[in-house]
Amino acid sequence: VQLVETGGGLVQAGGSLRLSCATSARTFSNYEMGWYRQPPGKEREERVFVASIMGSGGGTSYADSVKGRFLVSLDTVNNALSLQMNNLKPASAAIYYCRFEAATTRVISFGRGTQVVVSP
């Protein structure tokens, strides 16, 4: 599956951004979808979990550091995964990646990422 993230940029602490992940996947129920981030100075292999949503059932999960501030959702009209990020903190700065895991084959796909910079 192909994934393309957009929506990153520079924002002041306390501000908001909405990330979107366009996908070639046709049936969301076949995937577990989510967002990971790579903090500055870390390698891609050190990406950490941010949020996820189950294509079947819609159950969501969040890292403790973003609970109450970030919201993951599906846009079935535009065939995209979204991440609404509110009250951003400098520690939120990272490259954000969209991740899809196929429910049956467990094959994992990542997009190329979109950079979020948060100024104090």
Please characterize this protein's 3D structure:
The chain has 120 residues and is mainly β. It is built from no helices and 11 strands. The chain has strands spanning 3-6, 9-12, 17-23, 31-38, 48-54, 60-62, 70-75, 80-85, 94-102, 108-110, 114-119. Strands 2, 4, 5, 6, 9, 10 and 11 form a 7-stranded mixed beta sheet that branches. Strand 7 and strand 8 (80-85) form a beta hairpin. It is globular, with a radius of gyration of 13 Å.
Task: Give a quick rundown of the structure.
With 120 residues, the protein is mainly beta.
N-C termini distance = 37 Å
Coarse shape: globular
Question: Strand fraction band?
Answer: over 45%
Q: What is the typical, i.e. mean, pLDDT?
A: 96
**Count of DSSP strands:** 11
Mind telling me the C-alpha Rg? 13 Å
The tally of helices reads: 0
Instruction: Give, in order, the helices and strands.
Output: EEEEEEEEEEE
Outline the biggest β-sheet: 7 strands, mixed
SS-based structural class?
A: mainly beta
Helix percent band: under 10%
**Low-pLDDT residue intervals, each spanning 5 or more residues:** none
Describe how the helices and strands are arranged:
Elements: E1 3-6, E2 9-12, E3 17-23, E4 31-38, E5 48-54, E6 60-62, E7 70-75, E8 80-85, E9 94-102, E10 108-110, E11 114-119
Parallel strand pairs: 2-11
Antiparallel strand pairs: 1-3, 3-8, 4-5, 4-9, 5-6, 7-8, 9-10, 9-11
Offer a few descriptive terms.
four-stranded antiparallel sheet; 120 residues; mainly beta
